[in-house]
Amino acid sequence: MPMKLAVAAASKRIRTVLPARLSTTTSSLRRCLSTRDLTLSSDSSADPPAFTNSRIRSNPRATPSRDTRPAKPTTPLVVKLSSKDRPSKFKIPASVSKTVARELLRNRYLFAEYSLFSPHRGFQKWKNHGILKHTKIPDDFFRGRIPIKLYPYQVDGPRFILASPALSEKKEALPPPAKPEYGAMRSHVQIVAAPTADTPGACLLVHYDNRRYVFGHLSEGTQRLFTEHKIPAAKLSHIFLTGKTDWATTGGLLGMILTVADVIISAKTAVEEENRLRRKKNKPDIVHGGPQRIEIHGSKNLEHMLAAARRFVFRKGFPLDAHELRADPRAANPENSEPDYEDENLKVWKIPLVATGMESRSRSSSTGSQNPRKRKLNSSEEPEAMETLAEEEDGEVVEDVPAGLENDEEKTRLLMQTIIKHMFDSDWKADTLVEQPLHKVKLPAKIFVRDDEGKITVYKGPLPGRDANVPDIRVLVREPWPGALIHRLPPTDPCFDSTCYIVKNHARRGKFQPANALKYGLPKWTFSKLAKGESVTAEDGTVVTPDMVLDPPIPGHGFALIDVRYEYLLDSLLKRPEWENKEIMEHIDAFYWILSPEVKDDSRLKDFMAKHKSFKHIVLGEGMNPNTISFAGASGKAIMMHRMDPDRFSIPNHNNQEEGLPADLASVAKLGKPGERLLLSPSVEFQPKFANALMNTIRPIKELTSTHAKAFNLALEAQEKISDPAFAARVAESEQDIPNRDAEIVTLGTGSALPSKYRNVSATLIRVPGYGSYLFDCGENTLGQLRRVYGYAETDAILRDLRAIYISHLHADHHLGVPSVLARRAAANAALPADETPKPLTIISTSKYIGFLHEYKDVEPLDWANIKLLTLIGTGRKPTDDPSGPPSADLGPGNNHFNMLPGTLCALQPASFRSSGNGNSSDSSKSQALLESQTGLASIDACFVDHCLGATAAVFTWPSGLKIAFSGDCRPSDAFAQIGKGSHLLIHECTFDDELIGEAKAKKHSTASEALDVGRKMGARRVLLTHFSQRYPKMQAPVLDELEGQEQSVSREKKDRTVVLYAFDYMKIKLGEFKMAERFLPALRELYGELENEEEEDGGAEV
Asked: Cα dihedral angle (812, 818, 821, 827), rounded to 10 degrees?
């Protein structure tokens, strides 16, 4: 309807244009067509009678005009014509040409300088009278242009709009950010995170109406904090990381990127779908107004860290640019005041703080290994091609880097940028087939051939590397993802320099003063032009410029963010030239400081703040900000469950008392609090009123005892039942054959995909007294969850006792917490007495994750000397295969790393950790002794499962006989059930409820009933369900109905039965306490049923 009204308005205006001006318009249109060699009808030389005989129709409802203001000045429009019978210049009155152009543009019928007009009611008479005529357009007319077919009106044939000659069919890069003359009206800075157990880094959010910018650390837990406080990520376009590149500053970056990518891609997809529907209704397209890409700025090794994640990060249609600060922007000219980044909202100056006295550590000293051996590439191979990690006779891993890139920094950076582009903005398609010789195909690969009729069929002949007689034919295979072609990045060295920033708004236009404009006799309709920065000519010829009627520009205000957590950075901080540059520092209102206990007492820091006392100094730092609870939703539920079952649930460890700043520092600075804001525009104002309120830990208990009194009373009955000595005696008698009943299972994260308000992602801690601690999967912020459960000191003790970390598969929600655990463990071991030797830690996973660790260890100098790696490789053997016979699913020699078919068994690498398989008991004893000395385990059995490529499930057995099976993510697996026979505990994923069996199959997860069925096949004595879809914000209530009163026995011992429990974040339960915890199922069902009803009444949960 709006388009029809606009078309009618255009038609009316054109019909009522003065006849004297119509001949000009007609001539202009004739020339417009003739310049493209288009034919006009014979009678087109004369003005159409319909126009020449027309008169202006009066509106009887119109009132006499009372507007006595002077008419708008008319500027002639100069149009260059062809050399055919015309003067050199021809002037068209602007009022006429703008009227026509405006209406055409409004209705999307005019493109570029020359166009053909689509016939509609406004121009139907022009076509009928010969001004426009359908003409056959030469084929080469569209060369270099994009023809766009209009809506199919089909008036004497189709019409076209011709795009500008400058446009090309080639996909062009997005234009650089605009540099406006004046800045945004409203903006503020908000403290999103201060260092706590939940969020170990400090983070600021700079807010504009059109964009959001993150400054500081994107540490683990930051993404979840955005969800907790309902901070939308849809407008996030830039991330400016401070400090050095390590996991402390970037641990949450990959998770945040994936979340933002999914939001933006979903928005683009929705716009494309909407446009598809709009085109069917002949409506114009709409444009996605959010960010089109994301840019990340940081220190050296940022690109290396991102590229190392290529094995498990892949998105399409999400351009991402990484910008490393590798050189001092003001090294050549200290007085240079040009910003290092600028867009329509802000200006940013990057400040590198050099690590004084810190020699660059060599790669061999930081990693504890020699430089990787390089393979010489054949001349026929691509430069980027490289071998996969391969096993030699001695079990050592051979790593390769692309040839020619070892010492060429520019080529290395180009390689990194290319990998990052393929990770986020690749046009690769999984169904694209490429042709190549069969002998060059690398397995595993689906191979196709064309039959005699040209149809594509699956190839079933001899395979390269497996069979001797491979035919010399060309076959079709799916094109591999380009990032997978690089199996090893060029080495790099850790960098200890810190990147800091000065951020400032653009100046804003001064206030318009109408009185000044009236002095020059300007009419009011000119005021808007002056306010927009345009000059206007008065009646007396005076040119009135904006500065004559506007107040002086309002300068842009800003802040500095300084990350100086290490003493070796202070000298560089004091010597930076920016502090003396008046143009940079003018109108800076605050300094935000990210500090650590190492520097908080340094007098140089206090003296610097005192010297610059005109700025407000705000400190964010570990050991200074209190360890307050960041995730109130999850903690509130944990406090409720602690009141119901204090033996299994504890109050999250926290501290609401500010430790405060040292006296000298407190005299010149204040402690920042999450939520506080600094308003930068339209005025400057510090706003502490927005600080996040501290969590009231008494409120959940009051809510439980009042609102949920029925659930609380059921819990009291359960407490009374389990406190009966007779009940405890019966439990102990029924579990006499279960070893290590004091083994403790701690579910640190029980959610799937991404952290949510109520659940963190996957992580389960197993503590077996006498053997050590073990982590099964280690999702983002596992370290923070540990600290909430045990506190800082006991967490360090657990990490020193950590013997193994098992990563089931490569999905990011299962392993992004590993580097921070390794970093904290290294710090805890460093505090050991000199005569105490740290225990070795073994990381168990497939080659792809081990490859990620090999590359990341170049970035951060962790305690790699005490870290051992065990790789799970394929055997092609199924549990039902004859041990003395050949494997039934083997892909051939040289492909052990690719035998990852679901249902097949894994073997440990190096080979010294597995038996030879020839029945030699001596070899088996040696491998078992070696495994036990390194991990405390008697055996590790694993198999590949149906989820993603390389997904595994594993069974761990201790020398005491304790056997625990862990599923990771998977569909139900008979092979897993077979190797887990007789397990004392099965920890199995339960992503979906039984009603969503179709979605479980599509996403290759398990339902509750399927997980329980695996437990029955195993004969597991205890089953713990975990890894729930985040669509269930608090718990999967239907599962409790099935678990309550579970009486089916799957044990050979009739006196015992299988006990099934549901996992919660922060839950601690011993293996011998399952029957006690089972008594609380009725209370939990009642509690969470009521909570779900409350959420529905409130409009749903925030997920």
From this structure: -130
β-strands 802-806, 772-778 pairing? parallel
Q: How far is Cα 393 from Cα 414, in angstroms, rounded to an integer?
A: 35
Token couple for 464: 């390269």
Residue 754's pLDDT is 87
State whether residue 360 is helix, strand or coil: coil
What are φ and ψ of residue 949, in 5° steps? -60, 125
- Mind listing the pLDDT tens digit for each residue in 332-372? 999 999 999 999 999 999 999 999 877 544 433 444 433 33
One-character DSSP codes across 77-94: EEE---SSS--S-EEE-H
Q: What strands, in cross-sheet order, belong to the sheet with 670-671?
A: 341-342, 346-353, 498-505, 558-563, 588-595, 616-621, 670-671
Structure tokens at 663: 């006296």
Q: What CA–CA distance (Å, rounded) separates 818 from 809?
A: 13
Q: What is the pLDDT of residue 77?
A: 34
pLDDT tens sequence across 175-213: 555 555 566 678 999 999 999 999 999 999 999 998 999
Q: Which residue has the tokens 């345009």?
A: 534
**pLDDT recorded at residue 1090:** 67
What is the C-alpha separation between 294 and 319, in angstroms, rounded? 7
Beta strands in 245-345 (DSSP E): 294-299, 320-325, 341-342
Structure token pair of residue 550: 């506007």
In terms of average pLDDT, the best of 27-36, 111-120, 794-803, 914-923 is 794-803
Cα–Cα distance measured from residue 346 to residue 396, given in angstroms and rounded to the nearest whole number: 52
Give the whole-angstrom CA distance, residue 805 versus residue 976: 19
Strands 616-621 and 147-149: unpaired
- The count of other CB atoms within 10 Å of the CB of residue 308 is 24
What is the C-alpha to C-alpha distance for residues 358 and 568, in angstroms, rounded to an integer? 7
Which residue has tokens 């310049």?
Answer: 35
Q: Angle of helix 19-34 relative to helix 94-106, nearest 10 degrees? A: 60
**What is the torsional sign of CA 190, 194, 198, 200?**
positive
Q: Please check the confidence at residue 90 and state whether its pLDDT lies above 60.
A: no
**Run of H or E including 819:** helix 818-830
Angle, alpha carbons 907-912-917 (nearest 5°): 55
Q: What are the angstrom distances between the C-alpha of 330 and each of 325, 336, 349, 612, 648?
A: 12, 6, 10, 21, 58
Assess whether pLDDT exceeds 80 at residue 433.
Answer: yes
Question: Do you know the residue count of the chain?
Answer: 1103
CB neighbours of 941 closer than 8 A, spacing ≥ 6?
A: 905, 954, 955, 957, 979, 980
- φ and ψ of 1042, to 5 deg: -80, -35
- Partners of 1014 in the beta sheet? none
Percentages (nearest 5) of helix, strand, coil residues in the chain: 35, 20, 50
- Tokens representing residue 531 in the block: 């306010």
Structure token digits, residue 31: 């020339």
Q: What is the largest CA-CA distance in the chain?
A: 115
Q: Sheet containing 294-299: give its strands across.
A: 320-325, 294-299, 236-241, 212-216, 203-208, 187-193, 677-681, 685-687
pLDDT score for 402: 60
Here the tokens at position 754 are: 């991404």
Q: Provide Rg for the chain, Cα atoms.
A: 35
| pLDDT tens per residue, range 1050-1095 | 343 345 789 999 999 999 999 999 999 999 999 988 888 766 655 5
Which phi and psi (to 5°) does residue 843 adopt? Answer: -105, 125
CB-based contact 728:1072 (threshold 8 Å): no
What would the 3-class secondary structure string for 615-641 be? CEEEEEECCCCCCCCCCHHHHHHHHHH
Amino acid 122: pLDDT: 40
The label of the residue with tokens 């909407």 reads 274
Cβ–Cβ under 8 Å, residues 776 and 821: no
- Residue 974 has which token pair? 């008979």
Question: Alpha helices, DSSP H only, in 660-698?
Answer: 663-666
